[in-house]
Specification:
32 strands, 2 domains, Pectate Lyase C-like, 21-stranded parallel beta sheet, globular, eleven-stranded parallel beta sheet
C-alpha cells in the first residue's frame, strides 16, 4: 500500500522525528508498507528524505534548487522530481557529484543535476569510485576487487555542465539509462565503464555539447546503445579498452539505430586526448556490432577503428549503416603493432573509405586475416570552452504520470536489435540545442 505526504507522517511518527533530527524508530511502520516522503514538506532536504526511506518508498521532490550532494545507499527506492526542469540539484562547482547511487534497484527520475566538479549522476558498486578521484579516462580503482551494483534505472534526467561525466555507470550491471539529456560534460555525457557482462541498455537519450556523447570503456557483453541522438559533441560515440579500468578488453556491444552527426562543435569542453570530428570510434574494442546507424557530417571520420598500444580491435561488424557527408566515412588505422583481425563491412552506404581497398579486403563474413590500415589528413581541433559556459538545455519532456515508486527489474528487458530501424535525421531534434545538421 502506498500512502503519500501528510497521511504517511500521521501514521509514521518516525518520519516526523527524523525530519526534526532524531533517528527513526525501527518497526514504527508495518512491514512491507511503502510511503511517499516529500521534500521539503516531510523532510527539509533530499538527503534527509533519502535517509528516512526504506525499500519500496518514493522520495518526491518539489520544484526548487537544492545545493546538496545526494547519496542513495538504500535499495529499491525511487528518487523523483515533480518537475524535470525545475527540480535542480546544483553543485555550485563545490562538490564532486550530484547524486551517487550505491544500492541496487534504485530509480532516479525526472530532475536536473548540474554544476558538479565530477559527475551529475554516478551509479556504482565501487567504493573507490563513490569516494575517489577520477583519472583521465575514468576511475582508477587500484587493487579494489570488482564489485558490481546490480539493477538501476536513470530516466528523464537532465545532466548539464558537469566537470567529468553527466550520467555515469561504473562497475554496475543490469540497468537502463533512458530518455535523458546530457550536455556540457568535460569528458562524456553518458559513460558506462568496467562491466562484463553489462546487461545495460542506453536508449532514447540526447547527448550534445560534450567532449564525447557516449563512451563505453571496458563495457562488454549485452551492452546496448540504441536510438540515441549523439549530435554536436566533439566525438559522438566511443567503445574502447583502457588499462586504467578492469575487465579488459572491451567487447560485444551493440550500437544500433542511433543518429551520430556533426560532432565537431566548437563550443564544447575539450577532452584530454583532443578527439574531434569523429562520429564513432572503436579503440581496442572487439566483436562489436554497429548496425543501422545514421552517421552524417562528421568532419574527420564517420567511423574509425584503431588499436591501443597493446590491445587489438578484432571482429567488429559494421553493417547496414548510412554514412554521408563525413570527411572519411570509414577509416581503419593501426599505428601500433596491435593491428586487429576479422573486422568487416557489409551493406553500408559509403562514399570514401581508408584504405582504398577496404571494401574488397574487409567484406563480411570476415576472414581471420589482418585488417588493412591506412592514414588520412584530419582537421585541426579548435580549443574548447569551460564546461561551465556550455549552452543551457532546452526544456525536456517530463516523466509520464506515475503513481508511487518505480519497480526496477533485476535484469532489464534487452532490445530486439533486428526491430530497430535506421533513424531519421530529425531524431529528437526538438529536444536539442544543436538542431541544424550540415548538408
Amino acid at each position: 500500500m502506498l500512502r503519500s505526504g501528510l497521511a504517511a507522517i500521521v501514521a509514521a511518527p518516525a518520519l516526523v522525528l527524523a525530519a526534526c533530527g532524531a533517528a527513526p524508530e525501527t518497526g514504527s511502520r508495518p512491514a512491507g508498507e511503502h510511503v511517499t516522503i516529500r521534500v521539503p514538506a516531510d523532510a527539509p532536504t533530499i538527503s534527509a528524505a533519502v535517509s528516512l526511506a526504506r525499500p519500496g518508498d518514493l522520495v518526491l521532490v518539489a520544484p526548487g534548487v537544492y545545493h546538496e550532494s545526494v547519496r542513495v545507499d538504500t535499495a529499491q527506492i525511487t528518487l523523483r522530481g515533480e518537475s524535470r526542469d525545475t527540480v535542480v540539484i546544483d553543485g555550485q562547482l563545490r562538490q564532486p557529484n550530484g547524486i551517487v547511487v550505491t544500492a541496487p534497484g534504485v530509480a532516479v527520475e525526472n530532475l536536473t543535476v548540474r554544476n558538479n566538479t565530477q559527475n551529475g549522476v554516478l551509479v556504482t558498486g565501487s567504493a573507490a569510485a563513490a569516494s575517489g578521484t577520477p583519472g583521465s579516462g575514468g576511475y582508477d580503482a587500484g587493487d579494489e576487487p570488482v564489485r558490481f551494483l546490480k539493477s538501476f534505472l536513470v530516466s528523464h534526467v537532465t545532466a548539464t555542465r558537469n566537470g567529468l561525466y553527466g550520467i555515469y555507470a561504473f562497475s554496475a550491471q543490469d540497468g537502463v539509462i533512458e530518455h535523458s539529456y546530457a550536455s556540457g560534460s568535460a569528458d562524456s555525457g553518458i559513460y558506462v565503464g568496467q562491466c562484463k557482462p553489462c546487461r545495460i541498455v542506453v536508449r532514447d537519450n540526447v547527448a550534445e555539447l560534450n567532449a564525447v556523447g557516449y563512451e563505453g570503456t571496458n563495457a562488454s557483453g549485452d551492452m546496448y546503445v540504441v536510438r540515441n541522438r549523439l549530435v554536436g559533441n566533439r566525438v559522438g560515440l566511443t567503445m574502447n579498452s583502457d588499462h586504467q579500468e578492469k575487465l579488459l578488453p572491451q567487447e560485444r556491444a551493440h550500437v544500433v539505430g542511433n543518429l551520430i552527426a556533426a560532432n565537431q562543435q566548437a563550443s564544447t569542453p575539450e577532452q584530454a586526448d583532443g578527439g574531434w570530428g569523429i562520429g564513432i570510434g572503436i579503440d581496442g574494442g572487439s566483436e562489436n556490432e554497429v548496425v543501422r546507424n545514421r552517421v552524417h557530417g562528421n568532419a574527420d571520420a564517420g567511423l574509425v577503428i584503431t588499436a591501443t598500444a597493446d590491445i587489438p580491435a578484432n571482429g567488429n561488424r559494421i553493417v547496414g549503416n548510412t554514412f554521408t557527408g563525413n570527411g572519411v566515412d570509414v577509416g581503419w588505422t593501426f599505428p601500433t603493432a596491435a593491428r586487429g583481425r576479422g573486422n568487416c563491412l557489409r551493406g553500408n552506404e559509403l562514399a570514401r573509405v581508408v584504405p582504398d581497398q577496404l571494401l574488397a579486403a574487409a567484406s563480411c563474413p570476415a576472414t581471420d586475416r589482418p585488417t588493412p590500415s591506412g592514414t588520412w589528413a584530419s582537421p585541426t581541433a579548435p580549443r574548447g570552452i569551460p564546461f561551465t559556459e556550455v549552452a543551457a538545455p532546452v526544456a525536456q519532456p517530463q516523466l509520464p504520470s506515475a503513481d508511487g515508486a518505480t519497480t526496477v527489474p533485476a535484469v532489464p528487458a534487452l532490445p530486439d536489435v533486428g526491430a530497430i530501424p535506421l533513424p531519421p535525421t530529425s531524431l529528437f531534434a526538438d529536444l536539442a540545442v544543436v538542431r541544424d545538421l550540415p548538408s
